Amino acid sequence: MSSWFSSAPATAAAPAADPNAAEDHPSDGSKLKTFIGILRKFIGVADLASVRFSLPSQLLEPTPNLEYWNYLDSPNAFVAIGTADEPVDRMLEVLRFWFTKDLKYAKGKPCKPYNSCLGEFFRCNWETDDDAPRIDTSGLRKSSPPGSSSSSTKSSKAAIPAGLGSGTSQAASTVSVPQLAANPTKPVRVSYLTEQTSHHPPVSAFYIDCPEKGLHAKGFDQITAKFTGTSIKVSPGEHNLGIFITVDRRDNETYQLTHPAAHLGGILRGALSVSVGDTAYITCPKTKLKAILRYYDEGWLGRTTNKVEGIIFRYDPENDNKTQIKDVPVEDILVRLGGPWKEKVVFTVGNEPLESHPPEKQITIIDIAPLNVAPKVLPPQEKQLPNESLQLWREVTNAILAKQFSKATTVKQELEEAQREKARQRESKGETWAPAFFVQATDKTGIPSLTEKGREVLKRAQVGNWDLDGVL
């Protein structure tokens, strides 16, 4: 989850006699006990992000927040968006990407990366295979008009979408299954640029670019957080209106994907986990299609289910008043989907309830089990600028990895104090800080724009050029 601790004075560990000496690494139980002790001071505070406090280095993941917080855990799901010819299938491609964007939380445990400093930036590439199976549901819609109750039940097994398998629950349309091509495809390059554009409130802007596929995504990241005593509720901030994905080759078709609220739970049990119990929306005004995803975090006797149910339906962009699945007229529903979002999600074409279809008629849109977070291609160290995330935090990271926690905390405090001093100098001179790569620090539309410098950085990244001479 995005960083919601601040660059305020740290709660430091007692300094060791030798700051360069390796210290005992605290156990997970010890780290959690310290973590809870700090959080208890903030019970009832409306927004932890506005309070902004700092954790001791031994509780941190040695990763900058801007590096950690991205949506390309499975970039091959992203580059497949816009491949299908039918609007409904393209919405399914967007949904497939949606269920992979936070793979790190489905497959791993939550962690706390470093806070971002104002003006800090991060850039990287992904080299991904164009191997996500093609989505084509036309065979399921041939026997009757889209949205009719018989469109799915009358389809034969032969009408299962090409590229999605045999139609059994085991035949998955997952981003991990490669296409059976005679010749291996050239990897597709996706470039990423993000910058901390505001400190109060903490906001970062991001831009994802894939010119080869005529595809880009952008948005602002900002959260609010509240500690209830048993869990931390994390919600989108006022400037975070979601991810905006544009498909250039489909007449600039744009999808807005809004974030649901999430909970960091398991604090009292000593096993942190992320659960979602809210609603998310994906809208495309050009195709007049909308998806509603309803998440359920608890089931019978309070057991965590991590289930999601959803629909794709026709909507009126000029009168977008359907916020719950039950509000949508049955005749407008084109697709139903559901399942445990940390494991496997399936869908059926038509408006009949998902559970009314036998397993062999339920198509797997994503199977999380075989997936892993994709590695990034990073700029060489000698090409990184001082305010680039990996360079800015390098000394802290090296100290944490060496278990020199007192040294890490000292260096971290020095970085934080340097940021405060820069802010004091700007204030005394009456200067207003402006981002380098994005036109505005925040925007009520939730859609950032790149500066000429930002465009040049991405242009160079697309050809594998990490040199920023002449850019800044």
TrEMBL record:
InterPro entries: OSBP_sf, Oxysterol-bd, Oxysterol-bd_CS. Residues 401-428 form a coiled coil. Residues 167-177 have a biased composition (Polar residues). Residues 142-162 have a biased composition (Low complexity). Pfam families: Oxysterol_BP (PF01237). GO terms for cellular component: cytosol; membrane. Keywords: Coiled coil. One of its GO terms (molecular function) is sterol binding. Residues 133-178 are annotated as: Disordered. The keyword Iron-sulfur does not apply. PROSITE patterns: OSBP. Belongs to the OSBP family. This is Oxysterol-binding protein. The lineage of its organism: Eukaryota, Fungi, Dikarya, Ascomycota, Pezizomycotina.
